[in-house]
Design goal:
The chain has eleven helices and two strands; from the N terminus they run αααβααααααααβ. The chain is mainly α. It has one domain: Cytochrome Bc1 Complex, Chain C. Strands 1-2 form a two-stranded antiparallel ribbon. Helix 5 packs antiparallel against helix 7 and helix 6 crosses helix 7. The longest helix is centred in the last third of the chain and has 32 residues. The radius of gyration is 23 Å and the shape is globular.
Length: 248
């Protein structure tokens, strides 16, 4: 028995690769159905979905931007304390003393702006191409929630530098939220943790920004991508297309 054959027939190898070399129809199908990355793709894709000018890759750009924000935000957390005494000095030190600190902060800031932009453009593309129609109406609702969470992430991150611009922007923003007719006052109290912007507000915005909103985004993005696969790709009204309009 050769070394290669010994390795490929071992229990360790079979625990990772549960099918043989894809040189027959069965193993080729198993490669797709047992691999999580390959399994994200629909079984059949409408030809319209394959054109670059149809989607412009806006959904993927939004996901990639979110991943870059997670990476740069994690790096920034090593040099930031959510305290009213230390938040602003930490930002100043990050920009002036920490190696590559200003680069990571700028990447995070402009990445947040880019994610909002690509998310809005993605929603507009889906609307104007009719890709929200059945059987994708549920995924459209998920996308709307993702847009709200994206705006929420941008809003909560605005307070963290704790400078005058951030302080008064959040003061005005939460005051506007208080005018919501049903639960506006309650929403303002939940966000601020008190009658005005202070330490409780900074702590709550920090917790929302680094834990609650990113966790919800990861969960709903996963659901969103899964629904794209289950609904047959990106194009609208796939169920109404003729059979020759799809391919395996």
């Amino acid at each position: 028995m050769s070394i290669l054959s010994f390795i490929t027939k071992s229990r360790v190898w079979r625990s990772f690769f549960r099918h043989g070399w894809p040189n027959n129809p069965l193993d080729r199908s198993l490669v797709m159905t047992t691999n999580v990355f390959f399994h994200l793709h629909p079984v059949k894709v409408n030809l319209k979905s394959l054109r670059a000018a149809y989607s412009f890759g806006l959904g993927i750009l939004t996901v990639v931007t979110f991943l870059s924000l997670v990476a740069t935000g994690t790096m920034l957390m090593f040099n930031y304390v959510p305290s009213v005494e230390r938040a602003y000095p930490d930002i100043v030190n990050l920009q002036n003393l920490v190696p590559f600190g200003q680069l990571f902060r700028n990447l995070h800031r402009w990445g947040a702006h880019l994610m909002v932009l690509t998310c809005v453009l993605h929603m507009a593309r889906v609307f104007y191409t009719g890709a929200y129609k059945p059987p994708r109406e549920f995924n459209w609702v998920v996308g709307v929630v993702l847009l709200i969470l994206t705006l929420g992430g941008s809003f909560t991150g605005y307070l963290l530098p704790w400078d005058q611009l951030a302080y008064w922007a959040i003061t005005v923003g939460t005051s506007i939220a208080s005018y919501e007719p049903v639960a506006g006052v309650v929403i303002k109290k939940i966000l601020l943790g008190g009658p005005e912007v202070g330490q409780a507000s900074l702590t709550r915005f920090y917790g929302l920004h680094i834990m609650v909103i990113p966790a919800l985004l990861v969960l709903l993005i996963s659901l969103h991508l899964w629904r794209v696969r289950k609904d047959g790709g990106l194009a609208a009204n796939d169920l109404d297309q003729p059979a020759e309009g799809a391919r395996s």
